[in-house]
Predict the 3D structure of the following.
Amino acid sequence: MFSETILLSLREIRRNLMRSSLTILGIVIGVAAVITMVTLGRGATAQVASDITKLGTNLLQVRPGQDRHGPGGTHSTGDMFKAKDAEAIAQEIFGLSAVAPIASKTIQSIYGNENWSTTVTGSTNAYLQVSNWLIESGRQFMESELRAGKAVCILGTTVRDKLFGGQNPIGATIRLGKLSCNVIGVLNSKGQSSFGTDQDDFVLIPLRMLQRRIAGNSDVSRILVSAQDGVSTKKVEQDIEQLMRQRRHILPGKDDDFHVRDMQELVSTMTGTTRVLTGLLGAVAAVSLLVGGIGIMNIMLVSVTERTREIGIRLAIGALERDVLMQFLVEAVVLSSFGGVIGIVLGISAAAVGAIVLAVPFIFDPGIIVIAFVFSAAVGVVFGYFPARQAGQMDPIEALRYE
Amino acid sequence: MKTTTSTQTGKHCLIELKGVTKVYGEGPAAMHALQGIDLRIGQGEFVAVMGPSGSGKSTCMNILGCLDTPSSGVHLFEGIDVGKLSRDERALLRRHYLGFVFQGFNLLNRTSALENVELPLIYRGTPAGERRVRALEALEAVGLTGWETHTPGELSGGQQQRVAIARAIVTNPKVLLADEPTGNLDSARSREIMKVLAAFNSERGITIAMVTHDADIAVYAKRIIRFFDGSIDSEEEKPGTD
């Protein structure tokens, strides 16, 4: 009897093919939108996580000053660090793989007729390690160059492209502001960060060179610390805080005038944000699914009215109220499930294309497909029930008289 | 023909109406469609119900067909008080014991003759194979072999009504209720339909109750009941005719 009902509903849907397709359009769009949004959102979340991981794993950042938000929040600026602070961290704290003192300045870089405003970062080879940079061509700094603050530089690919185009920059001399500087290497490309900034747009030079010849001081604006695998970043964070308090002579009970930030926390914060955004987008898309459900109810009501006579005939020859109710309910569910299936196929296709366009990974999740399908069928049940009940409760005499 | 007041035919009584009234609406606007009907229909009878429009004959047929219940009075079907049954119980009564033929044929459009005839068997839960065999038999009985796959739109009025009769008798009902079965047909087609109905009555013993306002059609029945203003005006029996 149930298979009869499904066959019957399929036949009925085929009979009104045009109308049926229009009816399920709402569901198709709704399901497709939900799947596209959620799939792309998951891709973006994964992208953000991997981008931040690219900044360096087990990474901690030490900065002078204190950012405190919330009620009574204050912003204090502490004194800049010195190169000695980084050395102290490297020597005294256990479980670190690299410590990179960093100072930077925005400056004009010039080669031949080309010039490009970029960030010059002064640091050591440790910077390459903590930030996961690889040398694409050329070499890293030599110990003697770092110590002497020699005028050598390693280019990010954006700077290389802007100044040299396709040419090989190794061995060439560029100008950074007024200084001549020998190019000894080029970094691999990291591309855009998930914050939308170009990570390849910078020039790396020895810290001493930046301090002495560009900035004219001995400041270090931040220190990047990377912990060894398996070492708790929490522990390292506490150790650094303790050490820096000592070195900066902060009395017990006084607030730090510097802060240590664990990048792992940043990862979870950022992925948390994209996850919330994904949820919101999915919710908006789900509203269109609801609208699609109302569309189904609308058409089912029209269909019930239009088929009043048929309902009358069925009731007269012995159909029970629930037989007729089931017939229309099954029809609504079959319709909406159809819409769900088409929407799933469309949504996945759209997400696959969108993933390429937005350059985020395409993450296929079977769970969301099951949920989408079940949900679309449920839409059919919910919105099909009212019209179906109306059909079942018709008075056969009235229904047979209906023109 | 003789006019009788006695309705007792001596046969097994299948349907009995006792003091049945039907009122539509309430208060001063109330319309008394039936005003105390007493009627007995025995097993194997062929009864024609006649009367002018608004005389209550269609209301009476709806009650006999268990589609409607009396406002007061008793409607017994095989001794069961139909008025006390639920909507679904009446539907089951219709499903298992009654067959309907309507003036407007009332076939499912865009559905083949065979499927139309199979429809009541579907609700009876008859397996597909048996359903098909019985539907084909029913169509053969009304002389429509070869037309099984045609939809109502492709059939003439007479043929459509024969499909409707096949649908009504495919379940071997105890009673066949026909409401103006020839109302939409010309006289030649009407006579064919009446012959088919009369044959089912005499050969298979199916009890038939038929509403008509056409005296030429009513002659096929064995008993004629005339309605007037919601009451039975007269009854006549025709012994010896078929």
